[in-house]
Design brief:
Layout (H helix, E strand, L loop, with lengths): L1 H163 L4 H7 L5 H6 L26 H5 L2 E7 L13 E3 L3 E4 L7 E4 L2 E3 L5 H6 L2 H8 L3 E8 L5 H19 L5 E10 L2 E4 L10 H8 L1 E2 L4 H14 L3 E2 L7 E2 L2 E10 L2 E9 L6 H4 L3 H25 L11 H6 L8 E9 L6 H15 L3 H6 L5 H88 L29 H5 L1
Parallel strand pairs: 1-5, 1-14, 6-13, 6-14
Antiparallel strand pairs: 2-3, 3-4, 7-8, 7-9, 7-12, 10-11, 12-13
Helix pairs in contact: 1-15, 6-7, 7-9, 11-13, 11-15
Bound molecules: adenosine-5'-triphosphate.
């Protein structure tokens, strides 16, 4: 019984203990549930944060990608800018190199200029010396000639005396040193040195005898024509006085200059009047002779005007003279920059002048009378013209209208030559291509002068081959059956005074009478011949010196212009270099600014990168755990940075 009582008691105790345990379990369960609820709440909060962080991460990623694209764009820009800088630097280097070269050539040119000036100075000195010597010599010769003239008069008197009362044979033999005395005297010329028009030695010579006076005297005929002044030009007749045989130039503070010619056509003379002196050439053509009519002068002096008038009048004359027994052919050609063009066709310029010339010959049919002038006009209108400082429509080429007439008396040729302007290069203000063109014009005009001088001096070698112009003119220029007429066209304008003087000086030189040749043909005295040979030598030396001087002056001018041209180019290049340097500096500043901007962006990006990295869902730590940052950090978040970024 006692044991059951004890058991009951034990049971009651256990029940109480159980109840207590049950209570504590319930309590514990409650506390666990509370704790669980709290944890779940916290988890919920963390998940929300995570989602926010993921969202932020997405935004950051977007920004990062945008920044990355921008950075690569900037990098490309930087690369291209660097490339441009490099190319500018290369250009700058090249320009500097070019500048050096220009400077070097300028120095060389300067040196050649000095040398040329020195040569010119010596040539001028020589020319003065020769001139003085020549003047002295010519005075001596004049005395000598006077003596000869007196001798001749004496001989003539004696001859008259002999003819009136024939002496015994022995007497004649004694008086006459050679059996041909009578013959000699008959063929001797009268040399009236102090004739009224002795100003011009060509007309100061008259003769009796059987040889052809014109053949020796008129090898080259020089006509001077002045066109009327235009409305914009002034002609001061006190400074430039023109009459029919003399031109006097009286510039202020300068020695006055006189030029004398056989024929001077004053301003306002008609082309018909000028043509009267050329008509002879057309007649010569009909009888199988040759003629060359050349218009020379500065740009705008009226060469084309005169030549066109003369061609049209010559054609009219030919129409009257030529019968159906004659064949007529025409060539209209243009020489430009040492190239030839057939103006009767659309063919381009060619260097092969012989072939072009052969092709250019056009045989005219029987109705040529009505067509030839029209054809010539059409051809002339095709000439190369340009605007220059001196003429609005300046012919920059030499034009030749060439008629060949084949008839019963032989083949006659006439060349009408309208030369390109002879103005000095400095005046035309030519540069570059135009300068080259002007130099070639000058070269061919010099070659023409040389040929004419050689013809006048009866030189053995005539330098036709020195230019295309002279080669083409060879058939009519020179030769005993040829009449050469040079029409020296001048402008009366005060602005063109220097050019007019050059043209007139050339005219005088061309017309310098070949007195020596003329007299030697008729006098047989050895002493006179020797003296004349000397005189002729002196004259040809003087002429050659004057030509050299003229050439040197032209060369000097060309060099000066070329130098100026180069100086201008150097100045332009220097300006360009300066501008490029300025541009480079601006670009460098721009690049620097872009670079700084890019640098700022990069550091901002790196900062955001660090922030994104701190928002790891697995390693979420309390804000206080990240040093110096109050933003939660995501650790082990796998953002793969591009290599380029990490390397930067
Ligand atoms: N005798 C003249 N009478 C009236 N006007 C003239 C005379 N000569 C020339 N002229 C005028 O002067 C101007 C220049 O003449 P032209 O073109 O013949 O000169 P150019 O020497 O041939 O020049 P370029 O060498 O440049 O060709 C033209 O307007 C022309 O009509």
């Amino acid at each position: 019984m006692a044991s059951s009582e004890a058991l009951k008691e034990k049971l009651a105790k256990l029940q109480i203990e159980f109840e207590e345990f049950k209570d504590s379990c319930t309590e514990y369960e409650e506390s666990l549930e509370n704790e669980l609820a709290e944890k779940a709440k916290k988890l919920e909060e963390t998940l929300v944060k995570c989602r926010d962080a993921e969202h932020n991460l997405e935004i950051m990623k977007g920004k990062y990608q945008k920044n990355e694209a921008e950075i690569s764009k900037l990098q490309t820009e930087i690369e291209s800018l660097k490339k441009r800088i490099r190319s500018f630097e290369q250009q700058k280097y090249e320009l500097e190199h070019l500048n050096d070269q220009w400077e070097k050539s300028a120095r060389i040119l300067e040196y050649s200029k000095t040398m040329l000036e020195e040569k010119l100075y010596h040539a001028e000195e020589n020319a003065i010396m020769y001139k003085e010597e020549l003047e002295e010599l010519s005075q001596t010769k004049q005395v000598e000639m006077q003596r000869l003239k007196d001798q001749y008069q004496e001989l003539k008197q004696e001859l008259i005396h002999i003819e009136v009362s024939p002496p015994p044979c022995e007497k004649l033999q004694r008086r006459s040193p050679t059996p041909s005395l009578k013959h000699t005297v008959e063929h001797t010329i009268t040399i009236p040195i102090s004739r009224s028009n002795s100003k011009n030695p060509s007309r100061a010579v008259s003769r009796k005898g059987s040889f052809d006076e014109n053949a020796s005297r008129q090898s080259v005929k020089v006509l001077i024509t002045f066109r009327p002044p235009t409305s914009s030009e002034t002609w001061d007749q006190q400074v430039l006085a023109i009459d029919e045989t003399t031109i006097q130039i009286k510039e202020k503070n300068k020695e006055s200059k006189n030029f004398e010619f056989e024929k001077i056509f004053v301003p306002g003379t008609t082309t018909e009047t000028v043509f009267q002196d050329i008509e002879e050439s057309v007649f010569k053509l009909i009888s199988g002779g040759n003629a060359c009519i050349i218009a020379y002068g500065q740009t705008g002096s009226g060469k084309t005007y005169t030549m066109n008038g003369i061609i049209s009048l010559a054609l009219k004359k030919l129409e009257e003279l030529i019968t159906e027994d004659y064949d007529v052919s025409l060539q209209c050609i243009e020489i430009y920059n040492e190239q030839l063009k057939n103006l009767l066709s659309e063919d381009p310029f060619s260097k092969n002048w012989k072939e072009t010339l052969a092709k250019a010959e056009m045989k005219l049919s029987n109705d040529w009378r009505s067509k030839s002038w029209e054809m010539v006009q059409k051809a002339i209108s095709r000439r190369t013209t340009k605007f220059t400082e001196c003429n609005e429509r300046s012919s920059r080429s030499h034009a030749i209208v060439w008629f060949t007439i084949t008839g019963p008396t032989g083949v006659g040729k006439v060349q009408f030559v309208d030369l390109a302007g002879s103005e000095r290069i400095g005046k035309s203000q030519a540069v570059g291509e135009t300068l080259k063109e002007a130099l070639l014009i000058n070269k061919s005009l010099s070659a023409l002068q040389d040929v004419i001088s050689a013809l006048e001096n009866r030189q053995k070698h005539i330098p036709y081959r020195n230019s295309m112009l002279t080669q083409i003119l060879q058939p009519t220029l020179g030769g005993s059956e040829s009449i050469v007429t040079m029409i020296m066209n001048c402008s009366p304008s005060m602005d063109s005074l220097n050019e007019t003087m050059c043209t007139l000086a050339l005219g005088s030189r061309v017309k310098a009478v070949d007195l020596g040749f003329f007299i030697r043909k008729n006098l047989v005295t050895k002493e006179v011949e020797r003296t004349l040979t000397l005189l002729e030598k002196e004259r040809s030396e003087k002429n050659s010196l004057l030509r050299t001087l003229d050439k040197l002056q032209r060369d000097l001018e060309s060099y000066q212009i070329a130098l100026k041209d180069k100086d201008n180019k150097i100045a332009i290049l220097n300006n360009r270099i300066k501008q490029r340097e300025k541009d480079n500096a601006t670009r460098k500043i721009d690049t620097f600014l872009i670079f700084n901007k890019h640098k700022k962006k990069k550091s901002r990006y790196e900062e955001s990168d660090i922030r994104v990295g701190s928002l790891s869902p697995t390693n979420l730590v309390s804000p206080t755990s990240v040093k110096g940052s109050r933003i939660p950090t995501l650790v082990n978040l796998k953002i793969t940075k591009k290599k380029t970024m990490t390397s930067k």
